[in-house]
Amino acid sequence: MAVQLSTKHLLGIKSLTKEDIELIFRTADNFKDVINRPIKKVPSLRDVTIANLFFENSTRTRISFELAEKRLSADVVNFSASSSSVKKGETLLDTVNNILSMKIDMIVMRHPAPGAPVFLSRHIDANIINAGDGTHEHPTQALLDAYSIREQLGVFENKNVVIFGDILHSRVALSNILCLQKLGAKVKVCGPPTLIPKYINQLGVGVEYNVQKALEWCDVANILRIQLERQDIKFIPSLREYSLYYGINRKLLDKIDKDIVIMHPGPINRGVEITSDVADSKQSIILQQVENGVAIRMAILYLLAARRGKIQ
To answer: Does the reported pTM lie above 0.85?
Structure first.
């Protein structure tokens, strides 16, 4: 049983072992108890300074990380590219080196360029946590999704998970596929052919284009939104048509002779990929995912700080 992470950074699920993931989950169990008690703060990272570098807009991930950091008593510096010298032409490395000169221990970074966190990890000493890099990976989202599934189903072996929606432009999809496979689950994707990447079969993932068949096969439906902001051409005729053929609604679920777990990483486009009567149903664990996100991120911050020898 692993007692520390095998890696100095969290750059992607690819760099984690199954033992790493299980260690993160066990640590998150303890922190979930912390965030549900009257006093929600522990002094674990009291002498650690963390910089949140977000070169893309984010609400949920940024708030979740900031809350996790403050629950652990870390000193937090927030950086937004829209109001920084990046706008004036400063390079990523210059920006980060300037921040590191302020004695930063850990960096949580979201960046539109795939591989940006890996690039940084090769040039600076601080621990790097990837909070989403382009269409590549979003490891903390995949970990909180898998943790939420574990909470509902107990085990991953012989469990079927379908990821619905815009697989082509989603960093959440790739990280989820890699994480779930390492834990022993079977994974399929479902969506319009234009939004399924050509390389998907190389990942050992099944493809289903019929939503009804996909729902009948799965134990868990993880529903992604259409990422129009990442599409430079039209991949679907309209959102209305997408909703008609690929949206998850109550009528579809009522045809299935079992209760499947409904998930969504957010933000939800109600009435497009999912209807309100599904998103707000008893089968939905969307709000639990949000709560679990704080516990998982606390666990990752704690374990990386422990590997650095910075734990109180």
So the answer is: yes
